[in-house]
Amino acid sequence: METNETQAASMPRIGDKAPAFKAVTTQGDIDFPKQYEGSWVILSSHPADFTPVCTSEFMTFAKLAPDFEKLNTKLVGLSVDGLYSHIAWLRTIKEKIEYKGMKDIEVKFPLIEDITMDVAKKYGMIQPGESNTKAVRAVFVIDPKGIIRTIIYYPLSMGRNFDELIRVIQALQTADAFSIATPADWRPGDDVIVPPAGSCGVAKDRMEGKAAGVTCHDWFFCTKKISKEEVLSKIQAK
Predict the structure, then answer these.
(1) Where residue 235 falls among pLDDT bands split at 50, 70, 90?
(2) Are residue 215 and residue 130 in the same domain, yes or no?
(3) Which residues are catalytic?
(4) In which domain, by residue range, is 218 found?
């Protein structure tokens, strides 16, 4: 019998290749992550169809889909419900649900059928402390090479913060594009963190203010400005 420890040990981690799988979705068959090579992906799970928190989340995902698309990011959803349940729920969202100004919302990204829980278990989405039969609200951010770059878990009772999900994508892409790190609460246009200098001479230049555009608060903490326009020109789809 699989223990909590065994399950935790098998969960993918940041830096791992995203576990591969094939599945049926509301948009046809899926071969993941192979068919998404070249794009960023947010793979997210929700506990169940026809539940209120999940409904608010899927409406928000669908509304923000164009914003994710601008960041070359595809959305893929999953729950352990069946395909016909998914289809009925998404139809209900479009035809009946109005929430926070969102109305007539059509979910066009794929929602995976996972009644066997095979995919959910591969990704550690089943958390026995929460439920043995429902996936928690997991988020996996996967880069164009199929590498897991961020993992976020939420309990069943709490909806996700979508501003943060967009910020995560922006920060990861900016770090890759400019070889920098992003500080707490970073948004495009804020100062970024410059990696530690690789030689004593470079470090000395930084501390003495000779490194162009770099401000050092101490030897280990240097920042520089990258404009919002420059960041967005690099990370947004043309």
Answers:
(1) very high
(2) no
(3) 54
(4) 179-235
Helices marked H in the chain? 4-9, 52-70, 83-96, 118-122, 162-178, 200-207, 228-235
Our CA dihedral for 130, 9, 116, 61, rounded to 10 degrees, sits at 60
Cα–Cα dist 103/109, whole Å: 17
pLDDT in tens, 70-123: 999 999 999 999 999 999 999 999 999 999 999 999 999 999 999 999 999 999
Last residue of a domain, one of 128, 160, 192: 160
Same domain, 118 and 208: no
Q: Kindly give, in sequence order, each residue whose CB lies less than 8 Å from that of residue 57, ignoring residues fewer than 6 positions away.
A: 46, 137, 159, 160
Total residues belonging to the chain: 238
How many independent structural domains does the chain possess?
Answer: 2
Tokens of 92: 């209900």
**What does the mean pLDDT of the chain come to?**
90
